[in-house]
TrEMBL record:
Its EC number is 2.7.7.27. InterPro entries: ADP-Glc_PPase, GlmU/GlgC-like_hexapep, NTP_transferase_dom, Nucleotide-diphossugar_trans, Trimer_LpxA-like_sf. PANTHER family: GLUCOSE-1-PHOSPHATE ADENYLYLTRANSFERASE, GLUCOSE-1-PHOSPHATE ADENYLYLTRANSFERASE-RELATED. This is Glucose-1-phosphate adenylyltransferase. Residues 303-375 form the Glucose-1-phosphate adenylyltransferase/Bifunctional protein GlmU-like C-terminal hexapeptide domain. Pfam families: Hexapep_GlmU, NTP_transferase. One of its GO terms (biological process) is glycogen biosynthetic process. Belongs to the bacterial/plant glucose-1-phosphate adenylyltransferase family. One of its GO terms (molecular function) is glucose-1-phosphate adenylyltransferase activity. The lineage of its organism: Bacteria, Pseudomonadati, Thermomicrobiota, Thermomicrobia, Thermomicrobiales.
Length: 409
């Protein structure tokens, strides 16, 4: 069987509003994660390890930090003369041009470039999920089934299923039902936002949906300016499922949507302990990133670190327990950091306590201050304290559980 021409599209343009202060000044895929990574590193590393070399990133919201981090694809061996990494942003000039109004709409607005590339298969990925997957396995099964779309699915707790696209599966992996964020989910099987499409089926369906939207609006010659295509789950996937040409590929390993404060927090704690959710140090499946050069972390006499990830360039003089520290973090003598995510170059002064909290880059906690508090309840936006980018907590101040310190405020 002749290898197919595969185009990978990574959707990285959403605002990520559920991450509160953390995405006020950066795109969600550019969020630091696990000490040294960014969220988009996981999907890009999966692409590199799956030998996919034509990768386009669709950016829109706050693209500057994301584009800088992508470094022309070099960390993932995608800085190539032919193929490799491209960053696509919204533009003006064609009928279908303009701002993306959802993930299906984003594909439609780049349909000219996609057709010019002329792929056989189009792999569409979200840029802000944490998982490990060999996409070659998905491609092989997709071709064997002759599917128009293969939906990679996984199981989640039933109470979380309604936050996603819920999948129903019949014989031989055929998808028999798809409901987008239903109030009453029919199952606990959800789409991971990894979709492999037959290129002709995808592009023809997008064209048809856009034409129907224009006809309904009485504006057949005005393109898709109202964003009627919206998201995959609204019209695109239900139509392909109804045609009987959708198949499911099961992801049984770890998968986490980190689109909320609580999931961003909890997913990083999943990486701690003797049995982390994902092995970040597997030489057979390296997770790669673009990072500045830093010296090794320093733990001085009298400090203590337990069950934590400590980034390069950190200086630890106090106590760190069950936490994730990004590069260059300083924890002064007498300070305690417990159950916390502390991002690059943040500083915690002596006598301060940071617990069940997230500190953004360059945040500062003054001497004797208290940020957050321990809780027996599951992590939530109401129990996780948040200190924003370059924000300062004054010496002796208290930030209550669920409190927010916004540098703009």
């Amino acid at each position: 069987m002749t290898p197919p021409r595969v185009l990978t599209l990574i959707l990285a343009g959403g605002e990520g509003g559920r991450l509160d202060l953390l995405t006020a000044r950066r795109a969600k895929p550019a969020m630091p994660f696990a000490g040294v990574y960014r969220l988009i590193d996981f999907v890009l590393s999966n692409c590199a390890n799956s030998a996919l070399t034509d990768v386009w990133v669709l950016a829109q919201y706050q693209p500057h930090a994301l584009t800088e981090h992508l470094a022309n694809g070099r960390p993932w061996d995608l800085d190539r003369t032919f193929g490799g990494l491209r960053v696509l942003q919204p533009y003006l000039g064609r009928d279908e041009s303009g701002w993306y109004q959802g993930n299906a709409d984003a594909l439609y607005r780049q349909i000219g470039a996609i057709r010019e590339f002329d792929p056989d298969l189009i792999l569409v990925l979200s840029a802000d999920h944490v998982y490990r997957l060999d996409y070659r396995e998905v491609i092989e099964r997709h071709r064997e089934a002759g599917a128009a779309v293969t939906i990679v699915a996984t199981r989640v707790p039933r109470e979380e299923a309604g936050q996603h696209g819920v999948v129903e599966v019949g014989d031989a992996g055929r998808v028999t039902g798809f409901a987008y964020k239903p109030d009453e989910p029919a199952s606990d099987l959800i789409a991971t936002e990894v979709f492999l499409y037959d290129a002709a089926a995808l592009l023809d369906t997008l064209d048809a949906l856009a034409d129907e939207a224009d006809a309904d609006a009485g504006a057949e010659d005005e393109g898709n300016d109202d964003g009627a295509l919206a998201d995959f789950g609204d019209e695109l996937l239900p139509r392909l499922v109804a045609a009987g040409r959708a198949r499911e590929h099961r992801l049984d390993g770890y998968w986490r949507d980190v689109g909320t404060i609580e999931s961003y927090f909890a997913a990083q704690l999943d990486l701690l302990g003797e049995d982390p959710a994902i092995d970040l140090d597997d030489p057979g499946w390296p997770f790669r990133t673009f990072a500045s050069q830093r010296p090794a972390a320093r733990l001085v006499a009298g400090s203590s670190v337990a069950d934590s990830l400590i980034g390069p360039g950190c200086l630890i003089q106090g106590r760190v327990i069950r936490s994730v520290l990004g590069p260059g973090v300083v924890v002064e003598a007498g300070a305690t950091v417990r159950d916390a995510i502390v991002l690059q170059d943040a500083r915690i002064a002596g006598g301060a306590t940071v617990e069940r909290a997230i500190l953004d880059m360059h945040a500062s906690v003054g001497a004797g201050a208290t940020v957050g508090a321990a809780s027996d309840d599951p992590p939530s936006a109401e129990t996780i304290a948040l200190v924003g980018l370059r924000a300062t907590v004054a010496a002796g101040a208290t930030v209550a559980p669920g409190g927010r310190v916004d540098p703009a405020g």
